[in-house]
Specification:
Layout lengths: L11 H11 L5 H18 L3 H6 L3 H18 L9 H13 L4 H26 L1
Helix pairs in contact: 1-4
């Protein structure tokens, strides 16, 4: 429903399809070949396939996922109404990532803002 309302595709398949497209897959055959590779690896390595998957270098996986994410962002570039939309979306994403620490960050930021507000009011009182 999200894409029909102007949102970003968010199902698990959207990232996979963006990844296929970003790395050259343009037809349904690329997905079939990808699946056949996994079936062949599963048949060849059997129960040891999980060791093969764990041996895949995580930095390379991170770069692959970064390019997939960038290809998804590239797809929605023309849907933004203003230049302010992207920083707001990035801020919301950062807030979601840091959600477990949100209470602590909110308390610290709130305390600092109250302290700065009190300090500004004292400075303004002294000037008058």
């Amino acid at each position: 429903i999200s894409p029909w309302l102007g949102g970003i595709p968010t199902c698990h398949g959207s990232g996979g399809m963006a990844g296929h497209y970003a790395f050259g897959g343009r037809t349904g055959g690329s997905v079939i070949i990808y699946g056949l590779i996994f079936v062949a690896l599963g048949l060849l390595f059997g129960s040891g396939f999980d060791h093969v998957v764990r041996a895949f270098p995580l930095p390379i996986l991170g770069v692959l996922l970064l390019f997939e994410a960038l290809s998804l962002v590239w797809l929605i570039r023309d849907t933004a109404d203003s230049r302010l939309d992207f920083p707001i979306a990035a801020l919301v994403g950062l807030m979601a990532v840091g959600l477990p620490y949100g209470y602590l960050v909110g308390m610290v930021v709130g305390t600092i803002l109250v302290w700065l507000g009190a300090r500004v009011n004292l400075v303004n009182i002294d000037k008058h």
